[in-house]
Amino acid sequence: MVSGVTRCEWANGHSLMEEYHDREWGVPVHDDRKLYEFLVLDAMQAGLSWLIVLRKREGLRAAFDDFCPERVAAYTDEDVDRLLANPEIVRNRLKVAAAVTNARAFLEVQQQFGSFDRYIWRFTDGGTVRNAWHTMAEIPATSPQSDAMSRDLRSRGFRFVGSTICYAFMQAAGMVNDHVVGCFRYEQV
Predict the structure, then answer these.
(1) Burial of residue 16, with CB atoms counted within 10 A of its CB: 0-12 exposed, 13-18 middle, 19 or more buried
(2) pLDDT at 1 over 80
(3) Which of 116, 126, 157, 183 has the smallest number of CB atoms closer than 10 Å to its CB?
């Protein structure tokens, strides 16, 4: 966490939010396990605040075998029930089941494309879309790229991958740079 700097206003006021903003958000990710982690986290966030997800992140990491898609893909209905009893995670049956379903679809994408990274970055032509927003109010909830990503992921069996979730994923994974122009991270990422 960096002090005495101007950052995107959503990140101010809580150390977890500031740390996430300052170190991770918008940094291009090309590691498949990290990309799966962001898929899980962004699905878990639907309808909740990002701070709730960040507070539960370590619990989610432990519960979902360090976000290893190969392990999560092997989870059974009993594993889902076990997870739903865990107070350290977001206990929503649809979201937990989606993490398992998505792990299986994730592995199929890896097989087809060689890596999930190679597949997912196609939606931004392999690079980061660099926006130039001056206020948070300008930042959209979706984009044509997130619309296309959502459609394609759903066609491959992924769940909890609506366009808004996909756009949040793109922001987290650095596929788009949505730091406002006045933020100290804007030029860095």
Answers:
(1) middle
(2) no
(3) 126
Residue with tokens 């107070």: 87
Among all chains, which residue has been given the structure tokens 């927003």? 133
Contact 170, 146 (CB under 8 A): yes
Domain boundaries, the chain: 30-177
pLDDT recorded at residue 4 = 81
Taking CA atoms, 125 is separated from 103, 118, 154, in Å, by 24, 10, 20
Q: Which helix (H) or strand (E) holds 117?
A: helix 116-120
**Rounded CA separation 20/42 (Å):** 14
Spatial contact of 19 and 40, defined as CB atoms under 8 Å apart: no
Q: What is the pLDDT of residues 75-112, one digit of tens each?
A: 999 999 999 999 999 999 999 999 999 999 999 999 99
What is residue 177's DSSP assignment?
Answer: E
Q: Decide: 99 and 72 in contact? Cβ < 8 Å.
A: yes
Closest CA to 109 of 76, 152, 147: 152
Quick one: CATH architecture of 30-177? Orthogonal Bundle (1.10)
